[in-house]
From TrEMBL:
Upper taxonomic lineage: Eukaryota, Viridiplantae, Streptophyta, Embryophyta, Tracheophyta
Species this chain originates from: Oryza barthii
This protein's name: Nicalin
Pfam families documented for this protein: Nicastrin (PF05450)
Transport among keywords: no
Membrane topology designation: Single-pass membrane protein
Family: Belongs to the nicastrin family.
Transmembrane segments: 513-537
One of the protein's GO biological processes: regulation of signal transduction
Keyword Cell membrane: no
Length: 605
């Protein structure tokens, strides 16, 4: 057959290019069938050795949605459920009966407080609070993730329910959607740290005074805890308390910067960590003080959850209200609150020294015999790991006006106490004055904290957020430093708090077979076209023609020797052959001539 023409090569090249283009288009279509979404994993931790939270991270199952088909097997399915559509009784039964789910993806409202009406807001908050407590205090053997609901998830749910309406669950046979999270096995967080930040505004001593000035401490913990660490921003608990502390420090720095208006009290500002963990950071911070410093503290004001109150704030104390110090502080707050048109109530809770758990931050001060109180919008102490800045506590749950009222109440009360203005109707931090409260400052810091998850074990001591707090406190106070310590070993935390969820649209087996048939047909047609254009139709027919069957009783391969006189005397060629298919091989100087049937050959031409 002669070599192919240039036109044949051209056609072959064009056909190959078309084949590559078709494959690329197929890959693009398959790529469009997958979507990548950021998801947030349910926390995994151990409490006193007991495993709690989600104990798995990797996910690779078909998606399912509520309502479920009859007799649905969820052990091989990942359930996708919007928050308000997820029956907590269903989830509680699964956990109690130790039933296995392939996985759970909970869809949260995009804006938790942007609901149509207040009734829906309350329902969302109640559902999230109950869900969070359920998941935090249970061992969940399967992966649980959170994501924000959007149009893509709405379309996904609609498709899943449409498939489920056929009465068959999603599988390799019926097709559907597959949820895949590829992540390594979570590892323990080694030596989680807590960082306390403190700054001083030293008071003014009179001439000849040698005694140490009394100190008033303003304290707020800034860290959070929740079901999803990567979503635990705690705008109200306790972002609002930390922001109020920064603004109070800014206001008094203006007064203390001038010796003429510097008070005769030292002011100590402390941003503490480890609040959700029994205020572990506050305990370590107080232990780090010299005894003389602790004894110099006149009283401490702890700020906790002050971002969503309207008319009533609560003052929680460990000492009886009849105590002279407590009575005086409460009167100072009451006088200012009446002028503001709000009220301050008092709640007394005696601490149990034999019980290591404390309900409020001020109770850690009380254990060191330091008079202290907590100002909070909460009228009663929260349960363990409650109201610690969880899923619902977003920017929309903290009101800047509430923080402003708290700052005004605390600042005016302190100023009247420090400067002896009790009973005088004087507003030290009056509006439109150089000492006025800055709403923009409060708003900006609330926005920042509402974008920053602050679960202490996942904040390194050199984290940019801690550096930002230190820098800001340094702008208004002196002797600022960060105390870093290891969180007590009652808690063990695991990493992998965020992941990427890949959603794949899985075709059914019928589609796969049809696709395989189309591809196979195309390849056969392409092959035939290439053979015809490059070699001819006859060669294509010969490829598919079955060769005739031949049977030989004896086969001998005969060759022409280029040097016959050197080959005729070869004794191997004179032997009689009685077996079938015996082949004699020669060197490269030989070439094959023919195959002879039924003959014995002893000479060569």
């Amino acid at each position: 057959m002669s070599s192919s023409s240039p036109s044949g090569h051209l056609l072959a090249s064009v056909s190959s290019a078309l084949a590559v283009l078709l494959l690329l288009l197929a890959c693009v279509e398959l790529g469009d069938a997958a979507a990548a979404v950021g998801v947030y994993r349910l926390i995994q931790y151990d409490l006193a050795g007991a495993p709690l939270g989600s104990r798995a991270a990797a996910l690779n199952h078909h998606a399912a949605a509520l309502p479920l088909p009859a007799a649905a097997d969820l052990s091989r399915s990942a359930l996708v459920a919007p928050l308000l559509d997820l029956p907590l009784a269903f989830l509680r039964d699964y956990l109690a009966d130790k039933k296995y789910l392939g996985g759970l993806l909970i869809l949260l409202p995009k804006k938790l407080n942007h609901e149509p009406n207040n009734e829906d807001k309350g329902q969302v908050k109640a559902s999230l609070a109950e869900l969070e407590q359920l998941l935090l205090h249970q061992q969940v053997p399967y992966p649980v993730y959170f994501a924000f609901q959007d149009d893509h998830f709405d379309n996904l749910l609609a498709d899943i329910r449409k498939i489920a309406s056929s009465g068959q669950p999603a599988s390799a046979t019926t097709g559907g959607y597959k949820l895949v999270v590829s992540t390594p096995e979570p590892r323990k967080v080694a030596s989680p740290t807590i960082s306390n930040i403190q700054g001083w505004l030293p008071g003014l001593k009179g001439e000849g005074e040698t005694e140490q000035l009394p100190t008033i401490a303003i304290v707020a913990n800034y860290d959070t805890f929740g079901a999803a660490p990567a979503l635990s921003v705690g705008s109200d608990s306790n972002g609002s308390g930390a922001v109020a502390l920064l603004e109070i420090a800014r206001l008094f720095s203006r007064l203390y910067s001038n010796p003429k208006t510097r008070g005769k009290y030292n002011l100590l500002f402390g941003l503490t960590s480890g609040g959700p963990y029994n205020y572990n950071g506050t305990n370590k911070w107080l232990r780090s003080f010299d005894q003389r410093v602790r004894e110099s503290i006149d009283y401490a004001i702890c700020l906790n959850s002050v971002g969503s109150w309207d008319n009533e704030l609560w003052m929680h104390v460990s000492k009886p209200p009849e105590n002279p110090y407590i009575k005086q502080i409460f009167e100072d707050f009451s006088d200012v609150s009446k002028e503001m048109g709000v009220s301050v109530g008092i709640k007394h809770k005696k601490i149990n020294v034999s019980n290591p758990r404390v309900a409020w931050e001020h109770e850690q001060f009380s254990r060191f015999r330091v008079t202290a109180l907590t100002l909070s919008e909460l009228s009663s102490p929260p349960d363990f790991l409650e109201s610690t800045g969880g899923l619902y506590d977003t920017r929309e749950s903290a009101d800047a006006e509430s923080v402003i009222r708290t700052v005004r109440l605390v600042s005016e009360s302190l100023a009247r106490h420090i400067y002896g203005l009790k009973g005088k109707n004087i507003d030290v931090f009056a509006e439109n004055s150089s000492l006025a409260i800055n709403p923009h400052y409060i708003q900006s810091w609330l926005d920042l904290l509402s974008r920053t998850p602050r679960v202490a074990p996942f904040l390194q001591k050199n984290d940019p957020f801690i550096a930002a707090l230190k820098k800001e406190l340094s702008e208004h106070t002196a002797d600022v430093h960060v105390q870093s310590d290891v969180l007590d070993g009652m808690f063990t935390f695991y990493d992998a708090t965020k992941a990427t969820l890949n959603v794949y649209q899985v075709a059914s087996v019928t589609f796969d077979l049809l696709f395989l048939l189309v591809i196979g047909s195309y390849l056969i047609i392409l092959f035939s076209f290439l053979v015809i254009t490059t070699r001819g139709l006859d060669d294509l027919i010969n490829i598919f023609r079955r060769p005739p069957s031949r049977k030989y009783p004896g086969t001998l391969l005969v060759r022409r020797a280029r040097h016959q006189d050197d080959r005729r005397d070869d004794p191997a060629l004179h032997s009689k052959q009685t077996c079938n298919f015996k082949i004699f091989m020669f060197d490269s100087q030989c070439e094959w001539l023919q195959i002879l049937q039924g003959r014995n050959i002893t000479n060569f031409d």
